[in-house]
Write a structure and sequence with these properties.
single chain, 206 residues, eight-stranded mixed beta sheet, 25% helix, globular
Length: 206
C-alpha cells in the first residue's frame, strides 16, 4: 500500500488520486486540515494570485499549481507556482524554510481541450483534494474560479466565465450560477457519463 503521509508530503495526492485509487482502492482520506476557515479575504487573495498565474498558464498552454497559506503572523502567503504539463501538475511543497500553514492547494487548467473537460473540476481534482485532506481552487481557461471542499468532496463556483483572465476564444453553453455547488457525479452526468459509483475504475492495460 502507498504511504499516504509520503503522498501528502510530496503533493501527489492533490493531483494524482487515480493512481492511488488504482494501487489501493481502500484508501481513506487523510485527516482534513485547514489553517483557518475560508473567508472573503482569502477568496480575494486567491483571485489576485490566480490572475497572475492564469495569465502565464494561458500563454504557455500548461497547468500551474501550488499552495495558498498563512504565515505565523496570519498573513496570506504563497510561493512560486509549479510549472506542470498540458493536463497535469504536481505541486512542489517548497516552504520548509519559512512559516507556511496551508489553507488550500490551487491549479489552473491551461488551454481549452476537446479531450478534457477544462471548465469544471475533474473527478481527479476533487478526490485528490479529499485524499490529501485539503481544500483546493481551480481556475479554468474560460476564467471561472471553483472552490473544492476537500472534506465534503464538492465544488462551488465562486465566479463565472471571464471573471479571471481567460482565453479570448473561449465559448461554452454552461448555465452555471455563482454559488452553485456540485458533487463529482453531477459533473459526470453533465458530460453525459454514468455516475462514478456505477462504473468500475479504469485501471488501464496490464
Amino acid at each position: 500500500m502507498i504511504d499516504r503521509r509520503l503522498v501528502k508530503t510530496l503533493g501527489l495526492a492533490a493531483f494524482a488520486p487515480a493512481l492511488l485509487w488504482a494501487c489501493s482502492p481502500e484508501l481513506v482520506a487523510l485527516d482534513y486540515e485547514r489553517a483557518a476557515p475560508r473567508s472573503a479575504a482569502e477568496i480575494d487573495y486567491v483571485k489576485t494570485v490566480l490572475s497572475r498565474v492564469q495569465t502565464r498558464s494561458l500563454a504557455e498552454g500548461l497547468e500551474f499549481c501550488g499552495f495558498i497559506g498563512l504565515n505565523d503572523e496570519g498573513e496570506f502567503v504563497t510561493w512560486v507556482p509549479t510549472r506542470g504539463e498540458a493536463n497535469f501538475c504536481e505541486p512542489v511543497f517548497n516552504y520548509l524554510d519559512r512559516s507556511f500553514n496551508v489553507l488550500a492547494n490551487y491549479h489552473t487548467h491551461g488551454s481549452p481541450s476537446v479531450e478534457h473537460e477544462t471548465e469544471t473540476p475533474s473527478f481527479v481534482d476533487m478526490y485528490g483534494t479529499h485524499l490529501a485532506g485539503q481544500d483546493g481552487y481551480v481556475v479554468t481557461p474560460g476564467g471561472r474560479l471553483w472552490y473544492m471542499d476537500g472534506q465534503a468532496v464538492t465544488a462551488e463556483l465562486l465566479c463565472d466565465a471571464r471573471c479571471l483572465p481567460h482565453d479570448p476564444a473561449h465559448t461554452d453553453d454552461f448555465d452555471f450560477k455563482v454559488g452553485d455547488v456540485f458533487e463529482t457525479d453531477d459533473f459526470e452526468v453533465l458530460y453525459g457519463r454514468e455516475p462514478m459509483e456505477d462504473r468500475e475504475p479504469d485501471l488501464g492495460e496490464d
